[in-house]
Specification:
single chain; alpha/beta; seven-stranded mixed β-sheet; two-stranded antiparallel ribbon; 14 helices; Cytosine-specific methyltransferase; transferase; restriction system
Length: 444
């Protein structure tokens, strides 16, 4: 009844979209991407009551998928199927090759999950890998960046829904799930919100969306991640407000703690604050919750050389002589001004600095790698390729610094890949903490 499809048939393309003030592409409800989010979430959650109640949307999504697929292959296959036949296809997706690429992925959900979770501000799924490794099934994901959606689909077979601030996006969240997880942006709460009263002081922030979902769905627990600076943001008021609102949403919140990724098996100095909470009616004694102890300290701590590319990286990662001189002048200027900012060459026998997005992020983690023999540039550069072996880390090395397995697919250009891994969570630290949370819940 159906023919096998290929990944290029449903590669994300430029459909109706919005451009944020930051230049980030996000797709709206009418876009092909949103329809594919509807379809992918249905295919992976067929037994859910909520998915069965959206048959009209599902049929529309399938027809859109077929139309797009056929237009790329210049075919008319399956165009004449009735609505009932389309639903038969969707209700037994593994029986037909039509939806092959939604399931032929590196990180499928466990067949017999121990618990369910939703993945908010999902990025490229660092939380998802950690929770799937512990037996969890993701029943909803949301991520508004189009390139991150592309990477997410390639690895999990799900296309995340878009802007979580839209009610239409939140309407797809299943009524019941066990854990909410996500790394949300750190935002100050507005004075206007405070004037409206305590209940509304978080309105307009992305934390407000988390709070609203917790209040409505009341999952058993949550796991939130943020930058270390959240603890002192706005003189500590931001974190205090967050904790108070979580308490009022019906959760006992474990005192937040800062953990470092390098203590959990990856050679990266990356500190993040973790916030764990349990629904009050579960009667869990949060004083007994213990964050995971460091696993890799001293001589056990991994070194950057452990995650270096096995083969000689492309010459494009090696800096030009002119750019190196520019970096040196830039650093000297900042040092003269009393700033500690500038490029940095790390010791491959040590740990990397935190990988970050924007600014001089990649230049904070330069390394010396003398393996290159052919210095012929493959891109336009000023000067020539340096002979000192100075190069940037590759996207795969950044992936390894965050604990992503080597079978994680990098399907975007380098610039997007650096951004995605830089914005991601460190999987080993997340997984170690999630295990403690699941133990408290009696799930594992």
């Amino acid at each position: 009844m159906a023919t096998e499809t290929s990944k290029r048939d449903i590669t994300l393309k430029s459909f109706p979209e919005e451009i944020t003030n930051y230049g980030v592409k996000i797709y709206d409800e009418t876009s092909y991407e949103n329809q594919m989010a509807v379809l992918s979430h249905y295919l992976h959650n067929i037994g859910n009551k909520e998915t069965k109640e959206r048959k009209e949307e599902l049929i529309l999504a399938i027809r859109s998928f077929l139309e797009h697929k056929n237009s790329r292959k210049k075919a008319t296959t399956n165009n004449s199927l009735t609505n009932e036949e389309l639903l038969v296809l969707a209700e037994a997706p593994m029986q037909y090759n039509l939806f092959h690429d939604f399931f032929n992925v590196p990180f499928p959900a466990p067949k017999q999950p121990k618990f369910t979770f939703i993945d908010l501000f999902a990025g490229i799924g660092g939380f998802r890998i950690a929770f799937q490794n512990l037996g969890g099934k993701c029943v909803y994901s949301s991520e508004f960046d189009a390139k991150a959606q592309e990477t997410y689909f390639a690895n999990y077979g799900d296309i995340p829904f878009g802007d979580i601030t839209k009610e239409s996006t939140k309407s797809y969240i299943p009524q019941q799930f066990d854990i909410l997880c996500g790394g949300f942006p750190c935002q100050a709460f507005s004075l206007a919100g405070r004037r409206l009263g305590f209940k509304d002081e978080t309105r307009g922030t992305l934390f407000f969306e988390i709070e609203a979902i917790l209040r409505k769905h009341q999952p058993k627990a949550f796991f939130l991640e943020n930058v270390k600076g959240l603890a002192i943001h706005n003189k500590g008021r931001t974190l205090k407000t967050i904790l108070t609102h979580l308490d009022n949403a019906g959760y006992d919140v474990v005192p937040p703690q800062v953990l470092n990724a390098m203590d959990f098996g990856v050679p990266q100095h990356r500190e993040r604050i973790y916030i764990i909470g349990f629904r009050k009616d579960l009667g869990i004694d949060i004083t007994k919750f213990q964050y995971p102890e460091p696993k890799t300290v001293g001589d056990l701590r991994p070194k950057f050389r452990d995650v270096m590319e096995e083969d000689v990286p492309s010459v494009k990662y090696y800096l030009s002589t002119v750019y190196i001189e520019t970096l040196k002048r830039h650093r000297a200027h900042h040092e003269a001004a009393g700033n500690g900012f500038g490029y940095e060459i790390i010791d491959t026998n040590g740990v990397a600095n935190a990988i970050v997005v924007g600014g001089m992020g990649r230049e904070r983690n330069l390394i010396i790698d003398h393996r290159l023999k052919d210095f012929t540039p493959i891109t336009r550069i000023k000067g020539e390729v340096n002979r000192e072996g100075i190069r940037r880390m590759t996207p795969r090395e950044w992936a390894r610094l965050q604990g992503f397995p080597d079978n994680f697919k990098i399907v975007v250009a380098d610039a997007s890949a650096y951004k995605q891994f830089g914005n991601s969570v460190a999987i080993p630290a997340i997984q170690a903490t999630a295990q403690k949370e699941l133990e408290m819940l009696g799930i594992i």
